[in-house]
Amino acid sequence: MNKIPMVIIDNNEKTRIQLMELLEGVNYIELIGDFDNLLVGYDFIAQEKPQLVIIDLTENTDLALEIVEKISKIDKNTVIFACSENVSTEMVIKTMRCGAREFLTKPVILEDLNSALRKARSLLTADTEKTTGEIYSVFSNKGGIGKTTLAVNLALQLNELTGKRVCLVDLNLQMGDVTTFLDLNPSFDIAYITSHISSLDESFLFTSLEKYKDRDLYILADPPYVEQAEEISVDDIASVLNFLKSIFSYVIIDTSSSFDIKTLTCLDMSSRIFLVSMVNLPSIRNCQRCLTLFKRLEYNEDKVKLVVNRYIEDDEITIDDVEEALNQEVYWKIPNSYFSVMTSINKGVPISEMDSKAGISKNFAQLASKISGITFYDEEDSKEHDSVNFDMASVVDKFKNLNLPFIKQRS
User: Fold this and answer.
1) Burial 234-251 (b: 16+ CB within 10 A, else e)
2) Tens of pLDDT along 242-293?
């Protein structure tokens, strides 16, 4: 087994020795140098290019951060752990932006160190072969139609059903709502990634994404300030999306509602576009405009999937009417559960986590099943099926007890 070469820079001899003692039990780490001087340690790292570096920020913080940034530029694949006795949110964010991948509080605890080392090992020894994931965009040229609700809940259900990594991207760069729907306050966003596009690798990416709870669902947030959206170029978006699909099985994008060049770039790169509409005349007319444009862009029928939201059976306008007006088959219907959805949004909790037994929760799970090809197992339906089988068996047994000639007796 190849060991990971590591260097430690810490001018406090006591904590440096403690850290070295903790590392003695880690059989996949090879300590190739330890230094009590930032500049001497940096010169060694620049020459030897170790895969892993632990650097203390407690004293001479500004110089230490400058060295962290320089190390990350020497080799973007080097994993840097920063540690300090002085911990604040501002310090952690500043350190991560300089290129560190982990921030450890001193004195370093074995459990925290092992957790960080396992993540670093996974990044450094990851298989270089990438599988191409699918990009699915959720689009509507009309606001307030349920686009973000669909994107958020579909992303979560795809992760739950398939067990694969899913990335949910908020490309509504000026008016994004994904983090609000999930009650998240991310430290990083797409503007941060695109401003460091030259450093984009798997390690940097996962540092910049917001993980949703304990799921393999990762969020790439919209910029916190409107003016930052203008600084993100079309090429930046294309680079980020191409990289995401090399890492994730599914990339779900909540787009803006405009046909600007950034949105069109996203739609061009998508395997499928879920065009969201409702069953009313304004929505249908807007949908017609979208489909007309998509035909001009030469998107094939398999790429564009029509999703009807807030569907009510026996409504004045039927699904047949919609399909006839649009000359497009409805791919999926989401039932009208307005109050459940609004409660979910106001609480910042996905619908399936708020009430997994609700009809709309199962609807999103069934949509994920249709997309992924993996069967959705409904426990309640299974219980009903088992109950029916039991009742039928009881009926057969009763007939057997009557000794009728057309019922064979068991030997």
Assistant:
1) eebbeebbebbbebbbbb
2) 999 999 999 999 999 999 999 999 999 999 999 999 999 999 999 999 999 9
- Both tokens assigned to 178: 């994904």
Rounded CA separation 336/322 (Å) = 16
Q: How far is Cα of residue 180 from the mean position of the Cα atoms in its chain?
A: 15
- Are 249 and 120 members of one domain? no
Give residue for tokens 């799921």.
215
**Is position 385 within any domain?**
no
Alpha helices in 212-318 (DSSP H): 226-230, 234-247, 261-269, 281-296
From 162, 158, 178, select the one nearest 170 (Cα to Cα). 178
Q: Is the pLDDT of residue 131 over 60?
A: no
Query: CA–CA separation, 252 vs 247, rounded Å?
Result: 13
For 41-95, the pLDDT digits (tens) are 999 999 999 999 999 999 899 999 999 999 988 887 899 999 998 788 888 888 9
Radius of gyration of the chain (CA): 27
pTM over 0.85, yes/no = no
Domain that holds residue 254: 134-372
Last residue of a domain, one of 124, 159, 182: 124
Q: Is residue 263 located within the same domain as residue 150?
A: yes
Question: Phi first, then psi: what are they for 219, rounded to 5°?
Answer: -115, 130
Helix intervals (H) in 1-107: 13-23, 38-48, 61-74, 89-98
- Encode 300-321: b = buried (16+ Cβ within 10 Å), e = exposed: eeebbbbbbbbbeeeeeeeeee
Examine the domain organization and report whether 230 and 250 are in the same domain. yes
Residues 111, 201 within the same domain: no
Task: Indicate the number of domains in the chain.
Answer: 2
208 with 326, same domain: the answer is yes
Whichever domain contains 145, its CATH number is: 3.40.50.300
Give CA–CA dist 91/65, Å, rounded. 10
Q: Are residues 288 and 153 in the same domain?
A: yes
Distance CA 163, CA 249 (A): 10
